[in-house]
Hints:
The complex is a heterotrimer. By secondary structure, chain A is mostly helical. Chain A has nine helices and no strands. Chain A has one domain. In chain A, helix 2 crosses helix 6 (100-129), helix 6 (100-129) packs across helix 7 (137-162) and helix 7 runs antiparallel to helix 8 (168-195). Helix content of chain B is 78%, strand content 0%. Chain B has a single domain, classed as Four Helix Bundle (Hemerythrin (Met), subunit A) (Up-down Bundle), CATH 1.20.120. Chain B is built from eight helices and no strands. Chain C has a domain at 25-51. Chain C is rod-shaped.
Amino acid sequence: xxxxxxxxSLSRAFFALLRRDLLLAFRRRTELLFPVIFxxxxxxxxxxxxxxxxxxxxxxxxxxxxxxxxxATVISLDGLFRxxxxxxxMEQFVISGHPLTLISLAKIVAHWLxxxxxxVLLSPLLALWMNLPTESLGVMMLTxxxxxxxxxxxxxxxxxxxxxxxxxxxLLSLLVFxxxxxxxxxxxxxxxxxxxxxxxxxxxxxLLAGLITSLTLAPFAAAAALKISLS
Amino acid sequence: xxxxxxxxxxxxPVVMFIHKMGSPPWFYKFTGKFIPWFWLIFGVLTVWGLYxxxxxxxxxxxxxxxxxxMYLHVPAAWMSMLIYSMMAVMxxxxxxxxxxxVEILAMASAPIGAAFTIVxxxxxxxxxxxxxxxxxxxxxxxxxxxxxxxxxxxxxxxxNSIDExxxxxxxxxxxxxxxxxxxxIIHYSVKWWNTLHQGSSISLTGGSSxxxxxxxxxxxxxxxxxxxxxANLLTRTRVSLLEQDIRKSWVREVLKEKS
Amino acid sequence: xxxxxxxxxxxxxxxxxxxxCAVAPLVKRKSLAKDIRRMIQIEERSIDSDS
Lengths: 231, 259, 51
């Protein structure tokens, strides 16, 4: 038998949970920096490994930045539900009577604000390092704004499935990377098209469509995954 | 006066059959009768198909002898995709209706699908070497198959990392479903990515229509692989049932009968 | 370049993978039978020691 939710409205519950997750994240402020530092280190590894030739870097810049974004997202995803799962808060959420889908969505939004948004904000610096042409910077940032939430959304499904495992984080990357392939392909295509002065808006349209689709479907799948993990 | 008549419920044989299949000992006994026949048909079709394909079919005008790898590569590719769809459908049924047998069938399909995907990749790679001069090409089909392999490995990995079998199966089935939804998107984006970066779509079989003498062995091998899947799937499911029910009496009966 | 070694290699690797995939559950069943025999032995021994 489900308990009556304390505050009846769904939106109040959503924002309350969002506030809570953001507050918790900011309490451990140093941990917020880890994905940021990771992003910077990974991108800087490429010139070190491949050579600093500006033309080569410019050619691989969209792919490198996007792959670094994928890696940084996956690393930070694990924290999305784990601490709540481990101390039993997640089970409290399930009993609370609020739909688990809404709870998942709130946590996903919190994750994007804490992990995805920094990627977007850092991208000018990364573009500078990778010698990305300045005309393409706007498109690059747009693809990141549209794409990183999709990464959080699809990633949350993987997190929900692996949350009860000890080495869940490692398995998580194997699970979500194949699902990230289309986003990577379309996002880098957009940036490369803009670098070559070709039309790129169709790719942004596809990303937007992907964002809307995953925004509507992923929270349900993530909730189902959490229910299985909690059973 | 006796007004109440007891009406015997009509037993629908199909429903009864499906119900019986859910019982592990019954499933084990019933499917055991079919497996040897499936292997037999697989063997006959494979020998016939390979004879037609490797011996009788004439060498291709453009590719020489190497096209004969097609009789392994293409049926394996078809199976890798068919098995994933079956796994996703069974996963959906298992998740919605919570039928244990279907959970086990879905999970047993994953390694078979992965095996076919590996065969597709290695055969494709070895076909590519004499055809294009290199062992690996990021063409649409091979790249798609590689991503498909990763999806399979994810399902297998997730299933094997959760201790409780039913929970593990449910989690892996959900993952299989999510992968199935993404598969068309992945296929199209990879196909498109390939044309974007190489200017024209390359295909191992070429755009030309396949001659009848080449087509027959292909179809025979395609059917043969389905019998392989059926036989292997039922074998793996039966062994899974033995493993999960190892403490139950029906398992002891079965293994006593064997020895 | 002769194509035959490639054809041989492709079909051999295919055969190895598919045969292994077919045989693996049979190996597992044998080890299960061994486990059950061991379990039965342990049970019979404990019954004997109880009585």
